[in-house]
Amino acid sequence: MPWITRGLSEGVPTSRYPRQPDGYGPTWFGSVAVRSQQDTGREIVTGQVGTGSGRGVVECPTGAISAAGSQITVDRGRCILCARCIGNEPGIFESDPSVEVAVSGREMLVVVDGDSGPALGQEDDARLIQLQASLAKRTRRLHRSIHIRHVDAGSDGSEEWEIAALTNPVYDVQRLGIFFTSSPRHADVLLVTGAGSAGMLEPLKKTFDAMPSPKVVIAAGTDAISGGLLAGNYATSGGIGEALPVDVWVPGSPPSPFSLLHAILLAVGLLPARSAGATDSLDTTRPSRRPNQRRRTGRRAKRAPEGQGQ
Amino acid sequence: MTRSGPLRPATGTEAAGAPLATRVPLGDLGTEVAGLTSRGARFAGLFAIPDPSGTRLVAVSALPGSLVVMESHVPAGQDSFPALTPMVPAAAWYEREIHDLFGLHPSGHPRLDPLILPLAEQSSRPDPMEAAGPHAGPGERPGEGPYRSNRPAELDSTPLPAHLKGEGVFTIPYGPVRSGVFESIEYLLETAGEVVPHLRSRIHHKHRGIERSFEGMTTADAVLLAERMEGVASVAHAIAFCEAVERISGATIPRNAELLRVVHAELERIANHLDSMIRHTEAAGQAVAFARLSLHKERILRLVARLCGHRFGRGVVQPGGVLGPPRAGSSEVLTALERIEASLRADTDLLMRTPSFLDRLRGTGVLPRDLVAAHGALGPVAKGSGQLDDARLDRPYAAYARLGWEPFRPRDGGDALARQWVRLDEIWGSFHLARQALDEMVEPAPWHVPLPDADGEAIGWAEAPQGEVLYLVKVEQGRVTRVKPRSASFHNLAIFPAAFPKDIFTDFAFIEASFGFSVAGAAG
Question: Which of B149, B197, B271, B323 would suit a FRET pair with B23, their CA atoms being 20 to 30 Å apart?
C-alpha cells in the first residue's frame, strides 16, 4: 500500500515525445555541426591523431573531420562527441543540441558546412527517397507492436544504460507499443551496440539469423557505426555494418535515450526518414499510423505473448 | 624488498623505462608477494610490460596509505615464468590474461583456461613451430609482445571442470546474448539441478583490445579511450589515468579541478549504485520501486549532463585538471541534489522495509569474509563482507583528503543484502561529498594547468563505483606507449563463483546485480 502513494508522489514524469517536443535536449552536445565557412577565408588542414591544434589545424581523435580546401565535413558516424573541435575552433564548429540524430543511410551522417543536418544535394534527395522506399518496404509489414532484441557486440557498457533507460518512467517506450524481448524469434528490430568485438560477431550473426523477416537493424552508437576509438585493432571491427545489413544509424557515444527512441521510431517507419529539424518532425504525428492503433488492427500469427522474459 | 611509497612520483628526470619499483628475481616474485599478503597487504594485480629485452612482470599490492610495487624480468626467448597463483590465488585471472595476451606460460598455474581471447581464434591458432603465422609478428598484442609463442592451452569448452564431479552434473551455458538488455557475457553454470555449486564466466566475447589501442596516443586522446574502458565508470577511469599522467610529469592540478573531479566521481557512484539497486528491484518484481529508482537515476544522469554536457561526465577530466567550470551554478546543482536525495530517501526507506524485497536478498550470495580478504576483493563486494578498502580513504587522491567523511557503518553479512546496504551508505556519502566539493569551489580560479613534457611510468588509482581502478601508464616523448587499466570488475569477477554454492538458479539475478560489475571493464 505505501508503494502506491510513493508511485503517485511526484505526478507523471513521462515525456510526450514524439507527439510533443521534449525540452530536455539542449543541455548537452547532441552532435557536432559545421558553421558556414564562407567568411573565414583560410585554408583548413585536418590533422591525424595528436598533431596538435595549431592555427588552421583541426585535430580529431577519431578522424571524423576532413577538409578539402575550405570545405569541411564532419562524419558523425565517427564522432565521439569529445567536443574538442568545438573548443579549439569555435568559429568553425558548433554544438547541435538536437536529439534527433538517427538516419537511414550511413552517408547521411556526413555533414558539411552551413548544414546542421545530413549532407543532401539534389542527388542525395533522390537517394533519400530511394532509402525511404527501401526502408518502408522492410518495415511496413510490422503493423503491430514492436519487439526489440538488443545485442551488445562489444560496447563500453554505457549504451546498455541508455537503452535500459527507455523503460524508465521518463521515456516509457511501452506507451508507444515498443517492447524489449528476450527471444530473437519474435523480434522485429535488432538493436546493436558496440564496435563488433571478434568474440561477439558470431553470436550477433546467429541472433540476426534467428529473427524472422522482415527485420530492421539499428547500429546504436558511434562504436557500432564505425568502431570509434577502437576501430581496426586486433580485437574489434570497424563497426557492425561489416557484419550485418544496417538500416538505421544513430550516432553518439553513447546515444541518448531520445536519440535511441528516434532511431527506433525511424526504423519502424513512424517518422520520416530525414528530420528537417527537431520541431518539424516532432510535430509530425500521424494518428492513423500510431503504434497503439496498429496493435489493434495489425494482429499477426507471428505475434507472441507480451510481457514474457525480463 | 622495500616499500616504494605511493609509487615514487616518476619525475621528468627519470629515464624512460626506469623501473617502477623494487626489482625481485623472477623466481622469488611469488614468495615476495605472498609474504606481503600474509602480512595484511591486498594483492592488487599482476601486469606485463614488454621491453626490448623481454617482458617485465609488475606485481602491485596495496597497503593502507601506499601501493607496493615489485617487478621481475622475463628474458626474451623465455616463454614461461613461475606462476604466482599457487601462493597467491588472487593472481589466477591475471596470469590467465598474461598467458592469453603475451604468450607467457605461468608454469604451475592450476587451471590455465583462456580468458581474454575468443575461443575460435585460439582454436585456429598457428602452430608456434611454424613461427610466422598471420598474427605472429610484433605489434599484434599489447606492448608488441610475441603472439602466443607457447603451446596452446586446453580449451575452456570441456563440459566440466576437474574439481566438480558427481552424478548427473551438467553444464548450462547462459549467454553471451542474454535475456534482457545486458552486456554480453557467457556463464557456464555447473549444476546437478537447482543449486549452482560452480560456474565459470567467459568474458572474452567482449574483449576489445583496448590496451593495444592506447599505444601511440597522446595523453589527451588516451583519456578519451580510458573513459570508454568501462563506460559506466568513465569519470573514475579518467581520473585514474590522469593521476598517473600527472604523477609522471610531477604536476599539481588546481584545487577547483580536484573538487570538480570529486563532484563528477560521486554523481557517477550514485548512478551506478542506483543501477545495481534497479536490477535488484527488477528481479524481485518490485515494479513501483523499479520505476522510482529508475527515475532517480535518470535525474542524476540529467544533472551530470547539466553540469558538463554529457550524461556520463565524459570530457570533463583531462590531464592537468578539468575542461573548465561546470556549466551550471553551484546553487542550482545543490538544490537539485537536495531534491533528489530527499525523494530517494523516502523511496529507499520504504524499499528496505519491504519484506518481499528483503527476503530475496537476505542470505543470498554469501561471501565469507576470509575469502574476500584472501582475494583482496574491491568496492561494495568487499565492504559487504566487512572488508573496508576504499582508495578515497586509504590513498586519497583528488580532493578527498580535504573533505569530511561520514563514518562507514560496518556491514559484514556478506550477502546481497549487506552489499545493498553498503551501496545505500555510499550513496548518502556521495551526496555528502558532492555537496562539500560544490561548496568549496571558488571562481574565478584556474581549472587546468599545462603539463610539462616528461617521460616515465606511474600508477594512478581511483575508487570507481565498482571498487578501486588502477592505471599503469608509460609515457615516452609525449605518447602513451603502454597502458594497463585494471578495473575492479575484472578483479571481483574472479570470485563471483564463490558466492554461489548455497544458492539456486533464481538467485542468480540478485547475486549478479549485487556484484555490480561491468563486463566491458573486465574484458578490456
Answer: B149
Do A31 and A87 have their domain in common?
yes
Cβ(B128)–Cβ(B122) under 8 Å?
Answer: no
Last residue within a domain, chosen from A61, A88, A122: A122
Average pLDDT over residues B29-54: 93
For Cα atoms A175, A157, A275, give the angle at the middle one, nearest 5 degrees: 50
Longest dimension (CA), chain A: 68
Domain count, chain A: 2
Closest B-chain CA to A168: B294
> Taking the domains of chain B in order of start, what are their residue ranges?
1-117, 210-523
pLDDT band at B458 (very low <50, low <70, confident <90, very high): very high
Residues A99 and A142 in one domain: no
pLDDT score of A127: 53
Sheet holding B54-63, edge to edge: B22-23, B66-75, B54-63, B42-51
Pairwise CB contact (< 8 Å): A28 & B309 = yes
Q: Smallest Cα–Cα separation from B228: which of A231, A168, A240, A246?
A: A231
Q: Is the separation of the CB atoms in B337 and A60 below 8 Å?
A: no
A204 and A258 fall within a common domain:
yes
pLDDT digits (tens, 9 = 90+) for A148-183: 999 999 999 999 999 999 999 999 999 888 999 999
**Smallest Cβ distance to A50: which of B209, B221, B286?**
B221
Q: Is residue A4 part of a domain?
A: no
Q: Same domain for A162 and A51?
A: no
Written as one string, the DSSP assignment of B245-286 is HHHHHT----HHHHHHHHHHHHHHHHHHHHHHHHHHHHHTT-
CB-CB contact of B472 with B57 (8 Å) = no
Are residues A140 and A89 part of one domain? Answer: no
Domain assignment of residue A211, yes or no: yes
CA distance B41 to chain A (A): 31
What value of ipTM does the predicted structure carry?
A: 0.88
pLDDT at B239: 98
Distance CA A242, CA A223 (A): 12
A276 pLDDT more than 90? no
CATH superfamily of B210-523: Cytochrome-c3 Hydrogenase, chain B (1.10.645.10)
Average pLDDT of the segment spanning B196-207: 88
Give the nearest partner residue to B350 out of A3, A80, A150, using CB atoms.
A3
Three-state SS string over B334-389 comes to HHHHHHHHHHHHHHHHHHCCCHHHHHHHCCCCCCCHHHHHHHCCCHHHHHCCCCCC
CA distance B296 to chain A (A): 10
Q: How open is the CA angle B120-B123-B128, to the nearest 5 degrees?
A: 135
- B1-117 belongs to which CATH class? alpha beta
**Do the domain assignments include residue A110?**
yes
- Interface contact B305-A27, CB threshold 8 A: yes
What does the pLDDT look like over A83-123, one tens digit per residue? 888 888 887 888 888 888 888 888 889 888 655 444 444 45
Q: Which of A160, A202, A206 sits opposite B182 (nearest CB)?
A: A160
Instruction: Work out the number of other CB atoms within 10 angstroms of the CB of residue A269.
Output: 20
**Do A76 and A152 have their domain in common?**
no
Give residue A135's pLDDT: 58
pLDDT at B144: 41
B217 Cα distance to chain centroid: 22
Is residue A33 a part of any domain in this protein? yes
User: Which CATH number goes with the domain that contains A238?
Assistant: 3.40.50.12280
Question: Does the fold of domain B210-523 match that of domain B1-117?
Answer: no
pLDDT tens track for B147-167:
333 333 333 333 334 456 666
Summary mean pLDDT of chain B = 86
The answer to whether residues B436 and B403 touch, using CB atoms and an 8 Å cutoff, is yes
| b/e map A24-62, b = 16+ CB within 10 Å | bbebbbbbbbbbebeebeeebebbeebeebeeeebbbbb
Instruction: Please tell me what DSSP assigns to residue A264.
Output: H
| CA–CA min distance A3, chain B (Å) | 7
